[in-house]
Structure formats: C-alpha cells, structure tokens
Amino acid sequence: MSLYVYPILWTLFLWWFSTGVILYLNGLPRWTFKWTMLGTTGVLALSLVGLYATADDTRITGAYLAFTCALMVWAWQEVAFLLGYVTGSRRTPCPPSVRGWQRFKVAFQAVWHHELALLVLGVAVLAVTWGEPNQTGVWTYAVLWIMRQSAKLNVFLGVRNLNESFLPPHLTYLQTYFRRRGMNGLFPVSVLLGTVVAWMLWQLATATGIGAFEITAFTFAATLLSLAVLEHWFLVLPLPSEALWAWGLRSREVRAP
Predict the structure, then answer these.
(1) pLDDT 10s digits, 25-52
(2) Most buried residue, 73, 126, 202, 249, by CB count within 10 Å?
C-alpha cells in the first residue's frame, strides 16, 4: 500500500507547496525578482541534470527524483511568467472591440513567448531522457503541459472563477483576455477526457504483475492528472480554492502599504 500512498502524498505536497512558494516569491518587491529568477534558473539547470542522471534509474528513488525534477523544470516557467520576464510581445489590455479569431490572435500575442518557453523546456526534458527506461519526468511534464493548455483555453472561452488574485499587478492586463461565464463548450470535453485518461493511468498503476518502479511512476502520473482535473473543476464551482494558497499571497499584503 505504501507504494501508492507515499507517491500520492508527495504529489499533493509538491502541488500545494510549490504553488504557494511561487505565489509568495512573486508578491515580494520587484527588486527581488532578478534574484528569484537567478535562483530558479539554477534550480532549472540542476533539475535537467537530475533528469539526465536518473534516466536509466528504474528504482523507486529514480521515479521520485525524476518526478520532482520535472516539476522543478515546470516551476521555472511559472516563475518566469509571473515575474513578467517571459510573457509575450503584447503587454497591453485586450481591445474591447475585438471578437472571435482576432481576439484569439491578440491573446496569443500576449503569451506567445511563454508558450515557446514551454515547448523548449519540453524538448529539453525529452532530450535528456531520450531512449532511456525512466520516462517519469516526460510523463510528468506532458500531463502538466496538456492540462495547462486546456485550462488556458477554458479561461479564454469563459469560466466562473478566473483566479485574478493570482496575477501580480504588472500582469493585471491579462485579465482583459479572460472571459467570465458559467460554462463553455470545451469545459465538459476537457474534464471528460482528463478523467478518462486519469482512470486509465490508475488502472495501469494498480495492474497485477508490474514492478515497484512502474507502480510508483504510474501513481505519480495518475495523481497529477487527477489534481489537474480537480483544478479544472475549481474554475467553475463556487469554491474558494484560493484559500489553499492564502499563505503564499501574504507577501502581497506586506507589500501593499
């Protein structure tokens, strides 16, 4: 049972704690941003080295290390985006007159540097683990990337909860590219497909005859995808999900005066 419980608990902890830390760092004075970016870039380099070093490690520890390193790679782009270093070529509010495809075009201009960074980092994760048996890091990054693209599209099309409080003051213009509405046509498709794939991963994790490494790796992927589906539900349900990371937003309260 511990082969399932510990990966689940580790995923929950990293999901909650890393998000809070990123929000906290982003709420500090702007003069700290360059040091935050420098530190996270160092963590990114170490994480890519860690993925390379564990690519042929099919022990339980190899799965834990690869999963953690992939999350740290992902954390770099989160920090770079929220600090405003890697966003897009458009840094102004969405013109109120644009509609349809034109609105999508200007919205993409606001984040395309960020999207490119995601692809580059994904290629880097693939490159350092290519052809090796430990693909935990690749699965982790793939789950994060796919579900993040889904969440972005849902926010663009319209959801109930836009989580504007997570955006720092220098990125408030991005709110104008969001749309608030009860539901959009993509949301049920996103949740359904995410739930089905998560169920398939749980089936793989609990299949008979697989080793401890496979159980751990599949449990990481299944738990992470289940959390991503939960985050999708946070977009439409009347739940105060921000309360989970209230401690991470306290740095903005200190900074406000």
Answers:
(1) 998 999 999 999 999 999 999 999 999 9
(2) 73
Q: Are 170 and 84 in contact (CB under 8 A)?
A: yes
Instruction: Pick left, alpha or beta for residue 168 (phi over 0 → left; psi -120 to 50 → alpha; otherwise beta).
Output: beta
Q: Domain ranges in the chain? A: 2-255
Give residue-wise pLDDT tens across range 108-133: 999 999 999 999 999 999 999 999 99
Does pTM top 0.90 for this prediction? yes
Residues forming a β-bridge with 212: none
DSSP string across 122-136 = HHHHHHHHTT-S--H
CA 61, distance to chain mean position in Å, is 23
Of residues 37, 124, 137, 19, the one with CA closest to residue 80: 37
